[in-house]
Amino acid sequence: MRLVEVFDTTLRDGLQVEGVTATVDDKLRIAEQLDHLGVHYIEGGWPGANPKDIEFFARAQTELSLSTSTLVAFGSTRRPRGKTDDDATLRNLLEANTSAVCIVAKSAEYHVVEALQTTLDEGAAMIADSVEFLRSAGRTVLVDMEHFFDGYKQNPEFSLRAIEAAVVQGASHLVLCDTNGGTLPHEVARIVADVKSHVGDDAIIGIHCHDDTGCAVANSIAAVEAGAGHIQGTLNGLGERTGNTNLTTVIPNLQLKMGYTCLPDGRIERLTAVSHHVAETLNRAVDPQAPYVGSSAFAHKAGLHVSAIARAKDAYEHVAPEAVGNGTRFVVSEMAGRATIQMKADEIGIDIDGQQINQVIDDLKRLEHEGYQFEAADASLELLMRRAVGSVPEFFRVESMRVITDELPGGIAGGAFSTEATVKVWVGPNGPDGDDAERHVSIAEGNGPVNAIDGALRKAIERAVPRVAGIHLTDYKVRILDGGSATGATTRVLLSATDGTRDWTTIGVSPNIIEASWRALEDSLVYGLLPRES
Amino acid sequence: MRLVEVFDTTLRDGLQVEGVTATVDDKLRIAEQLDHLGVHYIEGGWPGANPKDIEFFARAQTELSLSTSTLVAFGSTRRPRGKTDDDATLRNLLEANTSAVCIVAKSAEYHVVEALQTTLDEGAAMIADSVEFLRSAGRTVLVDMEHFFDGYKQNPEFSLRAIEAAVVQGASHLVLCDTNGGTLPHEVARIVADVKSHVGDDAIIGIHCHDDTGCAVANSIAAVEAGAGHIQGTLNGLGERTGNTNLTTVIPNLQLKMGYTCLPDGRIERLTAVSHHVAETLNRAVDPQAPYVGSSAFAHKAGLHVSAIARAKDAYEHVAPEAVGNGTRFVVSEMAGRATIQMKADEIGIDIDGQQINQVIDDLKRLEHEGYQFEAADASLELLMRRAVGSVPEFFRVESMRVITDELPGGIAGGAFSTEATVKVWVGPNGPDGDDAERHVSIAEGNGPVNAIDGALRKAIERAVPRVAGIHLTDYKVRILDGGSATGATTRVLLSATDGTRDWTTIGVSPNIIEASWRALEDSLVYGLLPRES
């Protein structure tokens, strides 16, 4: 089983994606996750290009303890007609104090002549000098050959000369970059094979792709088949434009389907969890459709086939989802058949009869018509099913609710906003209908309406239902359905919560965002208060 | 230039994606878009599996006038041990009254024996009988060979026999389906070449992939290179699990990079518009990272390189974005250099001096730190830049605002929600500071807080600024930043509007969703009221 090294550049190239910013703390947390997954190299950033990245490498030395991965600092070759020993980029690179560094080198004639405005001789010298300088400072040196494929198609002699300049000076890796992302698999296969025949075993050939043709994963595979031993990419395909090679896709393709070794034993099972953890850290949901790690990757919807799939999963799933830490999911929707509902009831652990199943199917149809979707709201689905069999106690009953948001005089330019909520509930040790039930009126301020109603509801019930204090909201998502009717559209709220051992998500739907949030909030607290067997 | 037919199954397989439902009206509108794009075949649905789809084909006969595409009804072979002439599925297929039909046929031993519980002889007979029946009714018959690649790896003889059964009876197309989506490009290339050598020119070989390995596009290309002349897929890669082959990616790969002809002349330029139109109809945004058609596909972020890119776009873009109806976008962000701001000012048509550019860069840094992002909010960016040069008139000034949401007694189970907003503004024919300015207090109800404040603000200013009536909000999006702090998190609102000729988007950010919406709403109205040169 040939080894294919995994080089993760989520923290450098990945953060070029539009709309994502990461703090130094975020980057340290992500690096820990990457080490936990077991990639060979973690490219942490470009010290000097960015003050954050200097801080990252400084803190990494004391705060980051990697057991599997090697941390890499990124930089570039010296500038044209400059010297290595007074080059700020190279100095920053050494000051990052990592055992390995990766430098980007222009390996396409066009970019040397036009972008650098220098000669091909100087272009090759920049590479040789820089590798020599970093090697003599004791670093392992990987070289990212920028615009390699486009350059090779234009002038293969110069692109190979750039490679030789790096190899002669002791670069460990020659990483062929499809910088503009436009190369297709058959071209990658041919060019990597050419380079391999020149380089032999003098250095490891790497591949760095972008997904501009939707082929980054296939290109990386083609390169490995043609002799590359090192793949660069990002978790979840983060990266500028269309993103970099998605490591969460290419790793299982190579390791589970093609017999290569990418991660240490026992690590690929962590793929789904690490993918989601990193996405959360960057506040960017994993695409539900993402291969291997997406929530829909092993979801079966069609009601008719669910029982056939349950009998013989491997006839309907291209790999065992557990191999990458994901799982089969039977999606319950209005198309769900009776068998699906029965299976879900078994999964939850409730007894359900035929009439109750019909009730659940009717409820699902009505609610999905209103815009509810239970695919992402397991707790609301479980409550719906438990209510159908009558196993949900009434912990509290709301009489009324009001929330007021004020912008105080001062106008849009300067007015301060304040929000307060009032909630009136019936509650008691024996439920809202018990003899000892009481009416509680609570008021709470919040930094927004949902925050305020959450605070007021908790205050109103906390004395009678103290366990509510152990429930914490962890995520709040808003989706506008039928955006075309703008502010009059239906709003779908998903609210996630935890009690420290379990996580759950509930849903609320209404044209009124406050009402939608309120429905999701009530379900969330009720679900968290349900007695648990274990 | 060899022709590769495009078969779109957005309306059938694509609608299996989780979270999407389409009305018959939606489907008719999408079919019009597909015809406008110029695909060869539009698979409209499965009449009989779904009452909606029977209605779709009925209405299509009178309401859908296709100039380029052929409408196809989908179905399956007759059931095991049944007869064709009393088979409900086949009857529904004929009643759809399309000139071409596509039937799914089990072509893998496992699925014939285990899922159908029948013999291989009967499996082959089901295909032959069904094709013969439909052919004798005058239909062009395409056959989707289900689980073909997995079946071929298990028992190639039976899979080829299934193909022969279809060919002998006159099927026009043999569509090889990677139903579980687990096949990789080198396997597709080998198996398609095998099939091609058996079939020759007796029928067109098609390819139908799913993206479970992230290789659906590369697999489709590999199949075409091995002899397939027909690709099936969906717009934007819609489809169950990880989605079907994304036609918006594979078409430009084949046509712009490999010299095949997929669409009639002059149509591929419509790709981006059709992709977004279909996504909007299904209320599902196009992935900004989507190759070719995504909003980030040709976006350049790194401030340093923007001027180099502007000089020589083809050195930094793998195809001309205009070829697919997209465009280059220079992303303005805190990383923006002075050159980017200057270019943006030129684009908008304002004069800006060095000090004003510094002001804009400072404002961007501060606001992006708060969570603003101007990448998707061009109008807010333009206002920010126009304010820096002092060219935004003050149309109205808000003194204060209040919005109240009440749940009336009746409780969570039954309480009705009502929302009302009060807005106090200064406004006048010569602006809020004119001698003739007046204070207006308006109140409006709404089906949610944002709807109510929109109504109240418009009422308050409409007499003094009647042009506001021509501005309509078209979309409202809410994103929770730092979801980890749940209902206390920062909220980002994007609000889109139109005046019938122009569309624009503004942004508001605040921990308070009402405040964030209010900021976006004010900017939206101000932008719409700006005088236009043209």
Write up this protein.
The structure is a homodimer of 534-residue chains. Chain A has helices spanning 24-37, 51-63, 88-95, 109-115, 120-136, 148-154, 156-168, 185-199, 216-225, 247-257, 271-281, 306-311, 338-348, 354-370, 378-388, 411-414, 449-461, 513-529; strands spanning 5-8, 41-45, 70-76, 100-106, 140-146, 173-177, 204-208, 230-233, 299-300, 329-330, 396-407, 417-427, 438-446, 472-481, 490-498, 503-510. The first copy, chain A, is of the alpha/beta class and 534 residues long. Chain A has 3 domains: 5-281, TIM Barrel (Alpha-Beta Barrel); 351-394 and 465-534, Double Stranded RNA Binding Domain; 396-463, no CATH class. In chain A, helix 8 (185-199) links the parallel strand 6 (173-177) and strand 7. Chain A is elongated, with a radius of gyration of 28 Å. In chain A, 55% of the residues are buried. Chains A and B meet through helix 4, helix 9, helix 10, strand 9 and strand 11 of A and helix 4, helix 9, helix 10, strand 9 and strand 11 of B. Chains A, B: Pfam families: HCS_D2 (PF22617), HMGL-like (PF00682), LeuA_dimer (PF08502). Chains A, B: Keywords: Acyltransferase, Amino-acid biosynthesis, Branched-chain amino acid biosynthesis, Isoleucine biosynthesis, Transferase. Chains A, B: Its EC number is 2.3.3.21. Chains A, B: InterPro entries: 2-isopropylmalate_synth_dimer (IPR013709), AIPM/Hcit_synth_CS (IPR002034), Aldolase_TIM (IPR013785), Citramal_synthase (IPR005675), LeuA/HCS_post-cat (IPR054691), LeuA_allosteric_dom_sf (IPR036230), PYR_CT (IPR000891).
